[in-house]
Amino acid sequence: MALDVRELECFLVLADELHFGRTAERLYLSQGRVSQLLQSLERRIGGPLFERTSRRVALTPLGKEFLTSLRPAYAALERVVENAREYAAAAGGTLRIGFQGTAGDEILRAVSAFQERNPNCRISVCELPLNDPFGGLRRRMVDAAVVLLPVAEDDLVVGPVFSRHPQTLAVCKQHRLAGRDSVDAEELAGETLMAFSGPAPGYWRQAQAPTQTPSGALIHRGPEVATLQEGLSLIAAGRGAMLICQPTGTNNRRADLTTVPLTGFPESALAFIWRRGEETPSIRAFAEYLT
């Protein structure tokens, strides 16, 4: 049987006032309506909650038991509603999100779903330099960011990890590995991979452009690049190769280069990150659409 919150509210006020007139005044109802709500609740429960005489109103033993159980439950329900109200009010304004490379389908779907459910919050997106995944957050240019893993920064929180894909090797059409069905990581021994300039930490640059194969063979460092397009242009010019994930290769097709599936290295993945201690309702809400 469905609960009627108005009946419960009426019972709680009458239990405080023990007077139908004062209860009606507090609830902005007529005394007749108060009586109707109470009678409906008593029928729903199956027993009298108050003893009524011309001189007094008092709780019955059933009413006292019901009151003891109802007060904390009703208070918890009020907190739920208040929390939801605060959450809805806070998920407003503008949420600035940075991303590296290309905003893929997962990101665009999350933006669309978030905007539909949170019309009071506008999402603003901007591209982050490939060689500086964390700088935009630290300079407060963005509120959160989608970046390539790994992330091991004490001042940043790693939220949902998504878009896991195998690595591919981007090479020019004339490269010796261009026609292969796949390439093993060990076959990169002696090859040249584009390196990353700028402030990205060493562990992150090493993950994107390893200088050794899994067995320890040397991979040469190529020209340093700051953006994906810089790297692709140098690859097309025959200056080296570059590790990119499958979706990035698909979204950046060029007639002068190709991508070959690569095995032996960890898969590529993206993470949604933000500044530690500065998680907002909007950030939490957007993160839910990336899981």
Task: Please supply descriptive tags for the structure shown above.
10 helices, 291 residues, D-Maltodextrin-Binding Protein, domain 2, single chain, alpha/beta, LysR_HTH_N, 3 domains, Arc Repressor Mutant, subunit A, transcription regulation
Explain the overall architecture:
- By secondary structure, the chain is of the alpha/beta class.
- The protein folds into three domains: 5-89, Arc Repressor Mutant, subunit A; 91-163 and 270-288, D-Maltodextrin-Binding Protein, domain 2 (3-Layer(aba) Sandwich), CATH 3.40.190; 167-266, D-Maltodextrin-Binding Protein, domain 2 (3-Layer(aba) Sandwich).
- It is built from ten helices and 13 strands.
- It has helices at residues 5-17, 20-27, 31-45, 61-90, 105-117, 135-138, 202-208, 228-236, 246-251, 281-288, and strands at residues 50-52, 57-59, 93-100, 121-128, 144-148, 156-165, 167-172, 183-184, 192-196, 220-225, 242-245, 257-263, 268-275.
- The strands form four sheets. It has a five-stranded mixed beta sheet with strand order 4-3-5-13-6. It has a four-stranded mixed beta sheet with strand order 8-12-7-11.
- Strand 1 and strand 2 form a beta hairpin.
- Helix 1 packs across helix 2, helix 1 (5-17) crosses helix 4 and helix 2 packs across helix 3 (31-45).
- The radius of gyration is 31 Å and the shape is rod-shaped.
